[in-house]
Amino acid sequence: MRGLITGFVGAALLAGGQAQAAPGPGDSGEAAFRDTYRELIETNTTLSVGDCTLAAHRMAARLSAAGIPDAQIMPFAAPDHPKEGGLVAIYPGSDTKAKAILLLAHIDVVEAKRADWTRDPFMLVEEGDYFYARGAQDDKAQAAIWTDMLVRFARAHYRPRHTVKLALTCGEETSGAFNGAQWLSQNRRALIDAEFALNEGGGGRTDGKPLSHGGHLVEQTVMVGEKAYQDFTFTVTNPGGHSSQPVRSNAIYELGDALAKLRDYEFPLQFNDTTRAYFTKAGAARGGAMGAAMIALAANPADHAAEALVNTDKQLHSMLRTTCVPTLIEGGHALNALPQRATANVNCRMFPGRSSEETLAALKAAVGDPAVGIVQRETGKPIAQVPPLDPMVIVPMERLVARYFPGVPFMPTMSTGATDGLYMEAVGIPTYGTAGEWSDPDGNGIHGLNERMEVKSLRVGRAFLYDLVRAYADRP
Prior knowledge:
Helix content is 35%, strand content 20%. By secondary structure, it is an alpha/beta fold. It has two domains: 13-225 and 384-474, Zn peptidases (Aminopeptidase); 228-268 and 321-376, Alpha-Beta Plaits (2-Layer Sandwich), CATH 3.30.70. The strands form five sheets. The protein has a six-stranded mixed β-sheet. It starts with a helix and ends with a helix.
């Protein structure tokens, strides 16, 4: 494995991040694709008022209209979650012994409040160089591309060697809600069985300007591994009393003390094959003191001076360890009473291989106060696993990056967030976040206000992913 990583990094070590994205092949289905994208975005799929099942049925109708037999199009919904359904579609290959490829995307989106947005978040708006809408990038762009891809396959009467499967699922954005990818992995494992899966999580990063107006890509990545998501509840209880007679024993004070200890606790530094390759390659591309520190730390994790500098970058800091941070707090029951209860939600992103149980033990040790109750909000979640840097997956992607984005460095990365790849990996389906699309350094408003997707990124990403899946599906 180490030899593979060295060869991969060395082969991809290209200078010249000034390159523009090469245009994809022309396609007369561009207008139809945009219509698919628009329909998916304008179908509200938030947990509060949305309907993933409706979105899945609309995508199923497009596949059926393209000529894919209804027997190969399988919308699904659990009876107790009728609006959180999804879709599986099978596009059969010519070789029944060749293992399938799974295209995975989630169709649910984060909540969006109209009063806070400049534009209606559930209407697709093209303005300047960008599309604006909730889900414009996360993850309805990829979901629309995958759906459109099978439509294109059917209309061209394409016959791949390997079967191509599509899974559009709900629940990725809400921990604790029904999750379609998890449900499929536990209840319909044979339906989604595949040699590997392609998912969100990879892609490019610009220098902050749209490529249509002089911007440049600084990198393209393939996601090879991700952290696992887990929430913990911190709780302090107290008899309370009249606020006119305060005492030091106060649930809010005690909770604040516990959170201060959490703030000062640092989980230990870790590397895996993916992050070591990323730090080596990205450090060389970045240059300067930070780049040198990244390379030095990958070579020697005990280099504390290098770690101190790397830790000043919040993304790099998070890639090196488990992280836990308070995200919600609640306490007290009346304006004029001492609090009887105070709680905080602590959100953890656990480094691959780390379990919820050992993270819980680390939190309890860091707080060191048995009066503070700490419990997992969910039990039984899989431990995040890292798929191999498999040349069968990596090399075709690397070649296409060189063709579409000449001179742009290509490297593996580990997501500090979390995707539904967690559930695929847990049942033995290696899952990779694809290169091809890109975003700006500010994250394009994903999970926040005025989410956007560069128009050129969507167009080129669609062409790139079409060529990529064809390369995988046609291989001997």
